[in-house]
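hey can u run this one w/ magnesium ion bound, need the structure tokens asap thx
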Amino acid sequence: MNESIAVRMDGITKRFGSVIANDRVSMDIRYSEILSILGENGSGKTTLMNMLAGIYYPDEGFLYVNGKEVTITSPHDAFELGIGMIHQHFKLIDVFTAAENIILGMKGEKRTYNIDEVNQKVKEICDRYGFDIDPKMKVYEMSVAQKQTLEIVKILYRGANILILDEPTAVLTPQETEKLFNILRQMRKDGKAIVLITHKLNEVLELSDRVTILRKGQYITTIPTPVANEQILTEAMVGEKVTLDIERPDPVNPQKRLSVKHLTVVNQERIKALDDVSFDVYSGEILGVAGISGCGQKELLEAIAGLQNIESGGSVEYYDKDGNTKELVGVSPREIRNYGVHLSFVPEDRLGMGLVGSMGMTENMMLKDYDKGRSPFLNRSESSKLADEIKSELDVVTPSIDTPVRKLSGGNVQKVLVGREIAAEPAILMTAYAVRGLDINKSYTIYNLLNEQKKKGVAVIYVGEDLDVLMALSDRILVLCAGHVNGVLDARTASKEEIGLRMTNLVKEEA
Ligand SMILES: Nc1ncnc2c1ncn2[C@@H]1O[C@H](COP(=O)(O)OP(=O)(O)OP(=O)(O)O)[C@@H](O)[C@H]1O
Ligand SMILES: [Mg+2]
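ok here u go:
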């Protein structure tokens, strides 16, 4: 029966100049179903769904919604057809309240609103799905998860029956993710059609009914989730056999690089983010940092990099390769970086950190040199050589190294960010969320790159969300719990249960 088909795409092609983002894609989206869309970075997932949301208009092909052919030329058209999309980058206005954002831009309706009615309807939606939203709260006061909830409430308010979510969990904690999944399951029960774009295969397998795979802009196949597994999905995405093993070479001749002692940091909210933290870091090893979100990982890396105020009594000693010792507390971030202590933090908003969207890869490489105190205009050829290397080594999908980076797909922007940091040849490389938003294949490229750094004798500190990866990649794992070091474990022998326990409960160490 055709009744259950919400959207049919037939031969959809979308080009950006010489790039074919979508190449004659045909697929369907059904009601009462969660459909995952899977594909490597730059495979055309966001572009394809943007055509349903009215952001882009297809160059070729036909769209059918509820069995009727339609043209969608604006987000307003999409809403009229009951289609709503939550984007990779949110589209909310910071200084407005939740309620104002919800009614904002609802064209073709009366200009004035009865705010009580709006609040009442918002409350009904929130009660139905268990959302926790205060209509009077301003967007700038909200956490990432609250903003995302607001985006969902906004499209439900407008009566969406077809919901598209573009990498919604990339910025959520495991607890927030579980909450979102329960909401999506409830929506499926209510008969809605849900499309989930994600790179996390465990989410695909856990949540979706079917999974559609794109590769280099083309439709490859749709697999019912019960017959799928990680290997099948990865191979369909990549188009060839892939090995999903993380290498763990033994550290060679480890030497102490950092000695952190009694580090206490009180953050902007006046909360003790780190409390009397002490540990050592060695060359040629990967030290994984495990902890639930917000337990102090960010502050820890920032404190070492000179970006946090450290309470008196704390110290961070840096041992350079010639055996000299330097105290990093009180030293400027730039000087710490010049010593070779580098921090690469992949933020929730990838363009927010260290990259300029309107510039190409080459110019973004020069920015880093500028940071070192050199003129940005002196070494264009060096920068373009570096940009070329990163492009080929990490397989960055871009028409050229001079294409503005904001035109690259989300994951490709990130490869530029991480690649630039690694290319700087640091002595200590601290990375947080390095694979956020990367497809599984490229995540493994990053793990390999970190291992290469390790083999070169770099001390790597790795903060990541995936415990399995952390356990496979690290030599030692430092567990943080509410700002305390709750054990430093040998990653070769530690069990997942023990790490999990230490992440959530302070374990009393035997003296
Ligand atoms: N506005 C644009 N101008 C030029 N090229 C674009 C534009 N938007 C997307 N592209 C290109 O189209 C291709 C598909 O990009 P898209 O963002 O759809 O990929 P994606 O599958 O969503 O990737 P990711 O997983 O990294 O988010 C990429 O090569 C990208 O560089
Ligand atoms: Mg995308």
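Residues 256-504 form a domain with the Rossmann fold fold (CATH 3.40.50.300). anyway lmk if its weird
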